[in-house]
Amino acid sequence: MDSLRAWFAAHGGSFHPAVVLDPQGPFGVSVLAPRLDVDTTIVTCPFSLIITKHAALNALKSILGPDAHAPLDTWSERQLICVYRSLSLASLVHDVPHSSPGVLRHFIYVQCLPATADLMTPHQFTTTEREILRGTNLYGATLDRERDWRANWVQCRSLVQSVNPAWGDAFTWDMYMTASTHLSCRAFPSTMLSPDPSLVSTPSTYPVLIPCVDLMNHKRGQPVSWIISCQDQDTTTPNTISIIVHPKSDDADTAPREELVEVFNNYGPKPNDELILGYGFSLPDNPDDTITLQIGGAAASQKWVIGRHAHNVEGLWSDVRHMIAKGDSDYEFEDDLETAAVLADMVQAKLDGIKTVADVRRSEAIRPAVRVMLEHYVAGQRDILESILESLDEKRKAAIETAREQGIDLVFDEEDDD
Q1: Which of 93, 126, 133 minimizes the C-alpha distance to 111?
Q2: Which of left, alpha, beta for 201 (phi over 0: left; psi -120 to 50: alpha)?
Q3: How confident is the model at residue 416 (pLDDT cuts 50, 70, 90)?
């Protein structure tokens, strides 16, 4: 960590003097400091040190030469940054001067990124661990992302190999997947670099790596401020981005003043599937958990994101009810009953296809850290689906009561009435 701090300071970055970097934290490097009683700027990074698509593109053009310029201009932001990160490994490129301005200047930062063995996203899961996810949305999302990443790697490797066959041979799929994982778990949206920084991505934003700022782990609800300092063009003072941590009222009860405690960032509200897929960790009983449902056979059908306690289920209900409503029906309760039945069958099938927490705990081949994530995830998904079933049961009961108010006594098969 000393070399990283020295490199960061030499390029205009800074940590609060009391900050300690612990390389043995539970999720890699942890940022520690004595208990904070006042708003404190933890870390500041100059814009010039941020790895953007433009910085990566310029470096790659310098390394790969003029013949590569046209193909490089067609690459995505992810491809540019991931290849730049990969070429920064000493084991891959021996004869590129790392200290040359604009060429692999992030060598020391890249060397301090977590090794592949320390990454814990589903891309690093074993076959047994990933199989637990079968039947969930996260399983499909993992396969889709991996397929896209592999296609990107094939294109990138072809260009690198055409320039230098030895580099191309060393530029393996595992190397690119690790770089892509680093980008997914450490990147911020480029909207963070605007005068009014925001973690909300838009169609025009792209991922950027902000060295050392990305060391701070996530804690839901942690009050932080992102401060952008934009200077006038006629000054030599660089533009910077800083994180200010605000002490919480309960912090005073958690540790003595002199004890080092972890200082957290806040990535914003994220469900466990996003945390696991993108970052490799989860939160117990995550209130931001969601599940995405779409009616089968309707290619253009809207996807409905349902949260805890069946939040937003009304939109899904209305969508399905509109699809099956009988225009000539004399009784609206008939449409309600059919809608409840159709949705209940769909949700129950989804629930039956997801492993239980007991299934996770029974498998001895799952690593402890992965087991925790899987338990959090499947528990949250099952909880949401069960809350949807409860909501549908209330809809069904309301439809039956409406029928009775209209003088119609409905008779159900014993199985349906259970």
Answers
A1: 93
A2: beta
A3: low
**Distance in angstroms (rounded) separating the CA atoms of residues 7 and 318:** 57
Of the ranges 55-69, 84-98, 238-252, 326-340, the best mean pLDDT one: 55-69
Rounded CA gap, 206 and 52, in Å? 9
Q: Tens digits of per-residue pLDDT, 280-321?
A: 999 999 999 999 998 765 555 688 999 999 999 999 999 888
Between the alpha carbon of residue 209 and those of residues 249, 265, 274, the distances in Å are: 32, 15, 18
Closest listed residue to residue 75, CA positions, set 214, 211, 209, 206: 206
Give the pLDDT band of residue 6 (cuts 50, 70, 90): very high
Residue from 342, 337, 340, 331 nearest 408 by CA? 331
Q: What is the DSSP letter of 265?
A: B
Helices (H) and strands (E) in the chain, counts: 14, 11
Rounded Cα gap, residues 12 and 4, in angstroms: 13
- In the sheet with 224-229, reading across from the earlier edge strand, the strands are 14-15, 40-46, 240-245, 224-229
Between the two ends of the chain, the Cα-to-Cα distance in Å is 62
Residue 400 CA to residue 75 CA, distance in Å, equals: 58
**Residue 403 is encoded by which pair of tokens?**
């029928």
The whole model's pTM is what?
0.88
CB atoms within 10 A of CB 107: 17
Element (H, E) at 378: helix 368-405
Residue 25 phi, psi (nearest 5): -70, 170
Q: What is the pLDDT of residue 293?
A: 92
Count the alpha carbons within 13 Å of 395 in the hemisphere toward its beta carbon.
Answer: 26
Predicted confidence band of residue 418 (pLDDT cuts 50, 70, 90): low
Give alpha helix (H) positions in 164-312. Answer: 165-170, 173-186, 272-278
Pairing of strands 240-245, 40-46: antiparallel
Element (H or E) spanning 88, and its range? none
DSSP 73-109: TTS-HHHHHHHHHHHTSTTT-SSS-TTSTTSSTTHHH
Q: What is the Cα–Cα distance from 287 to 220, expressed in whole angstroms? A: 10
Mean pLDDT of 2-15: 93
Angle at 33 between CA 29 and CA 37, to 5 degrees: 145
Residues 6 or more apart in contact with residue 269 via CB below 8 angstroms: 220, 288
